[in-house]
Fold this protein.
Amino acid sequence: MDRQFDLVIIGSGPAGMAAAIYAGRAGLSCAMIEAEAPGGKLVKTYEIANYPGIAEINGAELAMQMYEHSTAYHCESLFDTVLKVEDGELKKITCLSGDVYYAKAVIVATGTKERLLNIPNEKELTGRGVSYCAVCDGAFYRNKTVTVIGGGNSALEEALYLTQFVSKLYIVIRRDVFRADSVVVDKVEANEKIEIIRKAIPVRINEKDGKVGSIVLKNVDTNEEFEVETSGIFPYIGADPCTEMLEGLDVLDAHGYILTDENMSTKVPGIYGAGDCCKKVLRQVVTAVNDGAIAAQSAFHYINK
Ligand code: NAP
């Protein structure tokens, strides 16, 4: 099926949804294409406490409110995986289903995907003790021991969330300092259920009765390996941009992030980036919605030029 819009937004995280609100209110015919659940990483985040005006809100709840808002101005919400974006007088957007969309402008707001540990048994035990979503799976670990890998904001915030269920939680970091904000680090260090294992990296996961039984870690100074018994492993070691659909257009940096100017425009006129998938210094809900609003406004001016 071929359809045409003024604007196609790829991704419905905070950046894509903000773009949909601005595009819809500007009167553009618009579609927002999403491969998974609307909300992006928000849906997998327990608590948002730094979005101005909302002191504290559950991520999925904020996502739902944004989604209702983003579709209130007639931006059509479509579910598909975009495989390719091609330039032309009309941009061509090809999807996994075989559907093709044409648009005068495109905003790519596809976010990032979690990095894997890439160690033996990680893939085999995913869903059987290895999880990349504390909010989705945390309740399965009531009164059990779990291990969070990583020292960034995601790792520490999700670790704190998990402490309401588990009896014991290890956080494994490869340096002796965290990367996360000090306000979160202070909470982690004060939590009696949490034990921090510093200067260690994961080597392999051991299976027990078809599930995760333990994780083998290696001290980075001594190369000594040691085993930690654990029922759950939650890797939060960063993420990579979901921008494969732009690979033919020479708009990405060496790590796959979209390069944009202050109008969120790539060097291809009519193609914009917004949110975590762009090269930027701060990846937050508030900066994502900022990008989405600017990208939609820029697309509006481009289309009406
Ligand atoms: P991140 O900030 O890049 O942190 C990744 C963590 O994983 C670091 O501690 C890193 O160690 C560690 N790591 C990376 N590769 C590893 C490996 N192979 N083995 C073991 N450890 C490894 O990633 P993030 O926490 O997912 O956050 C991504 C972005 O979103 C950041 O900009 C973050 O600030 C933002 N964010 C913000 C909030 C918030 O403000 N509330 C919440 C979530 C995310 P090193 O430190 O040694 O490199």
